[in-house]
Amino acid sequence: MNQSLAKVQNPYQPSRAKIVDIRDLTPDTRLFQVMLIDPKEREQFTYRPGQFCQISVMGTGEIPISISSSPTRPGLLEFCIRKVGRSTSSLHRLVPTDEIGIRGPYGNGFPVEYMQGKDVLIIAGGVGLAPVRSLLYYILDNRDQFNQVTLLYGARSLQDVLFPAELQTLEQHRDLNILVTLDRGDTSVWPYRVGLVTELFSEIEVAKNTVAAVCVPPVAYKFVTKELLAKKVAGEDIFMSLERKMHCGIGKCGCCAVGSKYCCQDGPVFSYWDALNLPDMI
Fold this sequence. Notes:
Helix content is 22%, strand content 30%. It is α/β, with parallel strands linked by helices. It folds into three domains: 13-106, Elongation Factor Tu (Ef-tu), domain 3 (Beta Barrel); 112-240, Rossmann fold (3-Layer(aba) Sandwich); 242-282, no CATH class. A seven-stranded mixed β-sheet has the order 10-9-8-7-11-12-15, with helices on both faces.
């Protein structure tokens, strides 16, 4: 039985991928650049911003991780991984040229077609920048299809900021508005704001045709959505990435079931109204 047929019959069969590069982002978070080994699989692999993959290391299991790269830049896949447990610790012990397993992509992703022709407001907190980074670069690579684009990003401290060099480069874009803040910090060494990400809402104007993409720590969702609703962003135009509820990726284990929804199939991106009507979603 060839490998492609085996994968059709066994959805748990991962594809082999090689680590091309690893970059330290924070003391506990790294960016992994990987490439599918099979050229045909690499060519056929397509995804949407906001989708995720199951990443595995032989002998230690697998974990769901959002894709941080954009489908507009094919070839390499990027995953931002924080070391928090057994599987992620195993990944952090790997080096370039090592192999990992990849299943996916899974989930619905952000509705980029719906967002076209509208202002896009992206709000991220901490490692939540990783999933929306895919959306941000997708928009920049299709800039003529979107109106005003704003990124609000908050991190706990200076050492927790993801992609600081990228953020500084992106600030030079005339057609992109970026506001960055720290929960705490020394303003003599940090050129940005100090405060919670929700405080940045007082510095922006939100147009009537705005859609929002949100990925923040769980405790922050209710505060961010409150600010968005106060800015008259409609509930159906607020899209939240809830990848933390993922497990098997294909709706078989039931671990991501919330009410009548499976996060891995119906999500991980949900509108505010969807999340509001499901228990314990946010």
